[in-house]
Amino acid sequence: MRATGAVVLDNAWVEHVGLVIGGLTSGHVMRHRRALSNLSEDERGEHRYPKRGGVKDIMKTAAELLMERVPDDDWLMSFASVPGYHILLSHHPEYRRLVPKEVELILSGHAHGGQWRFFGHGVYAPGQGVWPKLTKGIFDGRQVVSAGLSNTAPAPRFFNPTQVVYVRS
């Protein structure tokens, strides 16, 4: 992406006309990068993306999953102190607790709307486990969580249509 001239917001931010837009890299990706850094070039091979945990991850609690995938949040205070309106792209909605209150808008996904929904509640979400709280909607008046368009989870969506979110002021 960088070769095309795109700005990759990998634990970084850009400023433009009063907007400060940042991207919080997934802790899962950071853990994967740390593991790869211990390997030689030949050993790295095609390990571009982390492997999925499968069923064993489904049985973990939200706290266990979060501790495995803690992101690098050291830069967030600097990001939040830049003058302007702050928009943070944070794939994982459960990282909200790490985001300074000065950040006005957090855009998230990852929860797939809870994958299966019963009576308006998600049953399971990656990174949050069973009966997740942050599956889709607006939280604390500053975080928008989209159910998304894809179905990359091992189980199909059930009572949970795909979603495109349009945010306007």
Task: List descriptors.
single chain; two-stranded antiparallel ribbon; 5 helices
Question: Topology of this structure?
Answer:
Elements (H helix, E strand, L loop, with lengths): L11 E5 L2 E6 L2 H11 L3 H4 L10 H4 L3 H7 L7 H6 L3 E6 L14 E4 L8 E2 L2 E2 L1 E2 L3 E2 L6 E3 L3 E3 L24
Parallel strand pairs: 2-3, 3-4, 4-10
Antiparallel strand pairs: 1-2, 5-6, 7-8, 9-10
Tell me, rounded to a whole number, the average pLDDT.
Answer: 84
The strands making up the biggest β-sheet line up spatially as 1-2-3-4-10-9
Secondary structure: number of strands: 10
- In the predicted model, the low-confidence regions spanning at least 5 consecutive residues are none
Structure annotation, total helices: 5
Largest sheet geometry: 6 strands, mixed
How are helices and strands ordered from N to C? Answer: EEHHHHHEEEEEEEE
Radius of gyration: 17 Å
Distance between the termini: 29 Å
Give the total of domains: 1
Shape, per Cα inertia axes: globular
Tell me roughly what share of residues is in helical segments.
Answer: 10-25%
**Which structural class do the helices and strands define?**
alpha/beta
Strand content: 15-25%
